[in-house]
């Protein structure tokens, strides 16, 4: 399955803009070739293609597209402060420019559109306080991540009851997105409906069962000791997997029929 884990992250990740495992560093003002040449006006938050992208604030949604940013969203709050999130793979069906969205609401999905085409999936993330020039968003991203972790005990307290009454099941966290790909479902699992549709169904019905299940899962997730360390470890593993992929591809690709080459690539594209 693994789907509940994604729902968990929609509920549990606070204001952090990705519902799932993501990594970023301070690439603010790094030179970018463009075109045009520019200094990086945000942070690139890398995550698996297709993970939900969440609004970090209450505001008005604007859906745009351009050659550089590809499929992009703006969310502007009442004081004109806005965020810009680019290179998405898709919008949420039914959402339109001009509608309001709430903090944490899913407003799109991670991708590599625009000038990120062919590259690693990520969200180019900008913050413009009071509608002015962009500022380094990393302190905000760090704080939101920290808040999500710090809020964990409260979530545990709130949803502890649900947790106890829930049937035990292996917990697939966002740290293991590669193992929940529907195309590699194990012998016990059926692929089930497309991930994005279920996520949307869950996000659209806050009182519904899936969300309650997700809240129970939050409790499980945050109960895990050393979650932050686990994230760091997972990042290391991702790099290792990527290296293995590249090595295997390099060695075997020349002698492998093209139709079978997908076998050597970790599910989920980079
Ligand atoms: Zn960027």
Describe the protein in words.
By secondary structure, the protein is α+β, with helices and mostly antiparallel strands. The protein has 3 domains: 126 residues, Glucose Permease (Domain IIA); 75 residues, no CATH class; 37 residues. 33% of the residues lie in helices and 18% in strands. Strands 1-4-11-8-7-6-9 form a 7-stranded antiparallel beta sheet, with no helix packed on it. Strands 2-3 form a two-stranded antiparallel ribbon. It has a two-stranded antiparallel sheet with strand order 5-10. A hairpin with a 3-residue loop joins strand 6 and strand 7. The radius of gyration is 19 Å and the shape is globular. The protein starts with a helix and ends in an 18-residue tail after the last helix. The relative contact order is 0.17. The C terminus is likely disordered. The chain binds zinc ion. Zinc ion binds next to loops.
Topology:
Blueprint (H helix, E strand, L loop, with lengths): L2 H10 L9 E2 L7 E2 L5 E2 L3 E5 L4 E3 L4 E8 L3 E7 L5 E7 L11 E2 L4 E4 L12 E7 L9 H13 L1 H14 L29 H10 L4 H15 L3 H26 L18
Helix pairs in contact: 1-4, 1-5, 3-5
Bound molecules: zinc ion.
Number of domains: 3
Roughly how many Å is the radius of gyration? 19 Å
Order of helices and strands: HEEEEEEEEEEEHHHHH
| Stretches with pLDDT under 50, minimum 5 residues | 161-217, 261-270
Task: Describe the strand arrangement of the main beta sheet, using strand numbers.
Answer: 1-4-11-8-7-6-9
Oligomeric assembly? single chain
- What's the CATH topology label of the largest domain? Glucose Permease (Domain IIA)
Number of helices in the DSSP assignment: 6
Bound molecules: zinc ion
Largest sheet: 7 strands, antiparallel
CATH architecture of the largest domain: Distorted Sandwich
Q: Indicate the percent of residues in helices.
A: 25-40%
N/C terminus separation: 22 Å
Principal-axes geometry comes out as globular
Superfamily (CATH H level) name of the largest domain: Glucose Permease (Domain IIA)
Please state the average pLDDT score.
70
Q: What is the top-level CATH class of the largest domain? A: Mainly Beta
Q: Approximately how much beta-strand content do the residues carry?
A: 15-25%
Structural class: alpha+beta
Could you tell me the number of beta strands? 11
């Amino acid at each position: 399955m693994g789907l509940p884990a994604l729902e968990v992250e929609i509920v549990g990740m606070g204001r952090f803009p990705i519902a799932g495992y993501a990594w970023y560093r301070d690439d603010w003002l790094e030179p970018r070739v463009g075109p045009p040449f520019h200094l990086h006006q945000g942070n690139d938050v890398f995550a698996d293609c297709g993970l939900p992208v969440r609004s970090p604030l209450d505001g008005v949604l604007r859906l745009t597209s351009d050659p550089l940013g590809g499929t992009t969203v703006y969310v502007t709050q009442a004081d004109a402060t806005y965020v810009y999130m680019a290179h998405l793979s898709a919008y949420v069906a039914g959402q339109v420019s001009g509608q309001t969205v709430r903090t944490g609401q899913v407003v799109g999905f991670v991708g590599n559109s625009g000038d990120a085409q062919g590259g690693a999936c990520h969200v180019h993330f900008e913050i413009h306080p009071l509608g002015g020039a962009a500022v380094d968003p990393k302190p905000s991203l760090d704080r939101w991540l920290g808040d999500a972790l710090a809020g964990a005990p409260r979530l545990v307290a709130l949803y502890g009851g649900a947790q106890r009454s829930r049937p035990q099941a292996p917990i697939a966290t966002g740290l293991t997105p590669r193992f929940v790909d529907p195309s590699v479902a194990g012998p016990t699992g059926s692929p089930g409906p497309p991930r994005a549709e279920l996520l949307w169904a869950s996000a659209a019905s806050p009182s519904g069962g899936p969300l309650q299940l997700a809240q129970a899962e939050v409790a499980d997730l945050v109960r895990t000791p050393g979650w932050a360390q686990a994230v760091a470890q997972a990042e290391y593993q991702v790099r290792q997997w990527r290296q293995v992929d590249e090595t295997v591809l390099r060695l075997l690709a020349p002698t492998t029929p093209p139709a079978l080459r997908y076998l050597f690539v970790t599910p989920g594209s980079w």
